[in-house]
Design a protein that fits this description.
alpha/beta, nine-stranded mixed beta sheet, 16 helices
Length: 421
């Protein structure tokens, strides 16, 4: 695999191919990447899917999205004054591109230059205390003055206060529903204000009403956009802690604001501090901690102390493609891969990227990999070593086994035999 040169924009037909593939039932971000890299483009993947499904009958059911419906979605996006940006295009947020389940397409409305500046997420309780709201306001203003863009989830409470405090300098709102389905409803005007100087973002189809399970999906984007996540107030079962856990898994800095031990709204943030999060009592704490990242880029991923409850539970599923698009699929070996999707056509756009070509795995290798799987999860790296094959060959075998319903994914790049989870 080679690194990308200058990022290439998709043609209109390529964008339609990408949209049709990602909108297909049981095709999520990771499955999308596997298919595109296996077959050399979204168009080729769409053409190969019927035969692939027939060959692996009894496994995952994939229903290809209607191309006419996808055309209509593109037209509606245009009428909304928004656009769909693909993962390999120059306007795509660089930090978000680095996570292994980044959305292949995001729907965006607003000033996309906000993606080029350092981003910090501020999240917290929907029923925040007056002190928590005041701190979120002050923190957002201090970060804005230091040229950080503030990202959050457009929820009530801390999210809303952080967005409003950073409106003048640009803020990013990530939605759990479609770009035309603002939740909560009273934040429609706020979303419009954000789009004037910042960006409103969603990976969901237009018209999609957010469900409870869609908010963790949104949270991974909030953290994925950012260099760091600040948790202002959070109860022990708060969704803000999910954002913090995604941030940790994505190699982002996690900050927590200490609170009173008598206030349940501070229990989650205080727990994060005990587990290794960085203390935040002012904007300078965030600015100084992130200064090396602003200059030198994101670090390697890290975990909290293995002895903490946080680390002990980190294999728990936070977000699963089955919620909308399908089950977990093999991640790319390199999450920085940018796509060159020419759909098998003769002409190639500038800045071509070599794809990982992964033909169907030989049946003897598939059988060997299946034999190596057991009830206890094993890392894919260990499986590659045990199989004595290349990573691409093992990934292809795993993909085939998953389509046959014989593979279970356990998070943190761990796999096991289906039915033993």
């Amino acid at each position: 695999m080679t690194r990308a040169g200058p990022a290439a924009r998709l043609t209109d037909e390529q964008r339609l191919d990408w949209l049709q593939l990602i909108r297909s039932e049981n095709i999520g971000p990771r499955t999308f990447r596997t298919l595109v890299n296996r077959f050399g483009g979204a168009r080729a993947a769409l053409e190969a899917l019927p035969e692939l499904m027939a060959r692996h009958g009894g496994g995952r059911r994939v229903v290809i999205a209607s191309r006419d419906d996808c055309r209509r979605e593109l037209e509606r996006v245009d009428r909304l004054g928004a656009r769909l940006v693909a993962g390999g295009e120059p306007e795509y947020p660089p930090a978000l591109r680095m996570i292994d389940d980044s959305p292949p397409l995001i729907c965006v409305r607003g000033d996309l230059s906000a993606f080029t500046r350092p981003i910090v997420a501020i999240v917290g309780s929907r029923n925040a205390s007056a002190a928590g709201l005041a701190f979120a306001d002050r923190l957002a203003r201090e970060l804005a003055q230091a040229d950080f863009v503030v990202a959050s989830g457009l929820a009530r409470g801390v999210d809303q206060r952080a967005h409003r405090a950073s409106l003048a300098t640009g803020t990013i709102a990530v939605l759990a529903g479609g770009l035309d389905r603002i939740y909560p409803h009273e934040h429609i005007d706020l979303a419009d204000e954000i789009a004037e100087r910042g960006v409103v973002v969603s990976e969901m189809p237009l018209g999609w009403e957010p469900r409870g399970r869609d908010f963790p999906r949104r949270n991974r984007i909030v953290s994925g956009l950012s260099l760091g996540v600040v948790v202002v107030e959070a109860a022990r079962r708060s969704g803000s802690l999910i954002t913090a856990r995604f941030a940790n898994e994505q190699g982002r800095e996690v900050f927590a604001v200490p609170g009173s031990p008598l206030d349940p709204r501070s229990e989650g943030a205080n727990d994060l501090l005990r587990q290794g999060a960085t203390l935040c009592v002012s904007g300078s704490d965030v600015i100084s901690a992130l200064a090396p990242l602003v200059q030198g880029g994101l670090p390697e991923r890290r975990d909290f102390d293995e002895d903490t409850a946080y680390a002990a539970n980190r294999a728990e599923t936070l977000w699963d493609e089955t919620d909308l698009f399908g089950e977990h699929s093999p991640p790319l070996a390199d999450p920085l891969l940018e796509f060159d999707d020419d759909g098998g056509r003769d002409s190639e756009p500038p800045g071509k990227v070599d794809f990982i070509q992964a033909p169907a795995a030989p049946r003897d290798l598939r059988s060997a990999v299946e034999e190596l799987l057991g009830p206890s999860p094993v890392s894919i790296d260990d499986l590659v070593r045990a199989a004595g094959a290349s990573a691409g060959e093992v990934q292809a075998a795993l993909f085939d086994l998953e389509l046959e319903g014989k593979l279970a994914r356990h998070g943190a790049n761990m796999v096991g035999r289906a039915g033993d989870r």
